[in-house]
Design a protein that fits this description.
single chain, mainly alpha, Growth Hormone, Chain: A, disordered N terminus, disordered C terminus
């Protein structure tokens, strides 16, 4: 077991190899996610006859199981290490892929989506602390940004492959591909060594802090607001593409993913050199403009423009907000804090799925995406306010601070 000086990258033997393995495992599981983003809404509405609201609920329901899993997962990796969840998470996703091959009901798809959510939350709760463990401290935001870049490679490749498989071979071929990529992610995870220090001690944090770690409150509220936008776009982009007269969605998914890939590592580096807030604020503003364009101008050309702006904004906001959490959290509570941060996205995702789906059913994508733009704008307004409140000391603290 490695016993690194946490966050000090250069002192961890083979840290580059560890980072590559985690990224490779991640790209396998996220290509599987990318395959499902355009496929599930089409399958549910066209083959199973559901409404868009129901399709949005099923697609985003993985966040519901993640809400339950993340607080325990974060505490687990702090106590017992990162590696167990790195393996168990992809294994659960493999089981869900097998289930898709045999099911033909909305309820069954919903149950399998919940299993995918639990597996994804466990895998991410194990993987992201590994990256934070081995990343050289001066490059922490950049390394976290580079790691998250592999999510979007999966989101770029997955929809392209999914649309091709649906048109040529049908939905069963997609389910087989999901299984193949999740198995690949599982196999690669087996080669990642332990990087954390197993304390084995029961957490002394109150339950409310294990669920919502104090280091995550300010960036987490903003993450909830803008994460709802990502959930809505990811859940409905395949249906949105057809609504604006396009034959398929792979081109739009590719634009979104390529934009994120082109800007994510650059944005992470800026967050290291220029400051977290200096990157987060304009990034959230860019995201708000992008999703407003998607809502107001529903044509293929404006869809590309909106997705470029939205993708660039999301790309810059995530590593800056995430690095705020890692900077503030005590090292012994890093896994808990990182899981807690992503819990805010999990809480917002059902709003972006089922809530936006209901609005789309009633008033079209202008209403649905317009509501998400308004919520993201709220995050933009709150970000500097919350940041100023963080700079003011609490004159009457109720309990000892958890971070040093």
């Amino acid at each position: 077991m490695a016993d690194p000086a946490v966050g000090g990258g250069e002192t961890v033997p083979g840290w580059k190899r560890i980072f590559v393995l985690v990224c490779a495992s991640t790209i396998g599981t996220f290509i599987a996610h990318g395959l499902l983003y355009p496929t599930l809404p089409l399958y549910l509405t066209d083959e199973l006859g559901t409404t868009k609201a129901t399709a949005g609920l099923v697609v985003s329901s993985m966040s519901l199981s993640a809400v339950v899993v993340r607080p325990f997962a974060g505490n687990f990796v702090d106590r017992f290490g990162r590696r167990p969840l790195l393996v168990v998470g992809p294994f659960l996703m493999v089981l869900s892929a097998v289930g898709l091959l045999t099911t033909h009901s909305v309820t069954a798809v919903l149950m399998l989506r919940l299993l995918q959510g639990a597996g994804s939350a466990l895998a991410y709760s194990g993987a992201s602390p590994v990256v934070a463990d081995v990343a050289p401290l001066p490059r922490r935001a950049a390394m976290l940004a580079l790691y998250s870049l592999f999510f979007y490679i999966g989101i770029a490749v997955g929809p392209l492959l999914a649309e091709l498989l649906i048109s040529e071979m049908g939905y069963q071929a997609v389910w087989w591909a999901v299984g193949a990529f999740t198995v690949t992610g599982l196999v690669l995870a087996l080669f990642v060594p332990e990087t954390g220090v197993r304390s084995g001690a029961r957490s002394t944090l109150p339950l409310r802090h294990r669920v919502f770690h104090p280091s995550t409150t300010r960036p987490g509220i903003v993450w909830l607001c803008i994460g709802t936008g990502w959930a809505a776009v990811a859940s409905f982009l395949s249906l949105y593409a057809r609504d604006i007269g396009m034959d398929s969605s792979e081109g739009l998914f590719m634009v979104l993913a390529l934009t994120v890939m082109a800007t994510r590592f650059f944005a992470g580096g800026l967050a290291d050199t220029r400051g977290r807030m200096q990157v987060a604020l304009p990034s959230v503003a860019l995201l708000v403009v992008g999703i407003t364009v998607l809502a107001a101008f529903r044509t293929p050309t404006f869809a590309v423009v909106g997705l470029v702006l939205f993708g660039a904004g999301f790309s810059g906001a995530f590593p800056a907000l995430f690095a705020m959490v890692v900077d503030e959290a005590p090292e012994a509570e890093r896994g808990t804090a990182m899981s807690s941060f992503n819990l805010y996205y999990d809480l917002g995702a059902p709003i972006g799925g089922y809530g936006v789906g209901m609005l789309v059913d009633r008033g079209g994508f202008g209403l649905g995406f317009g509501a998400v733009a308004a919520l993201s704008a709220l995050g933009l307004v709150l970000l500097p306010i919350l940041n100023r409140s963080a700079a003011r000391p609490d004159p009457t603290p109720q309990e000892p601070p958890l971070s040093g």
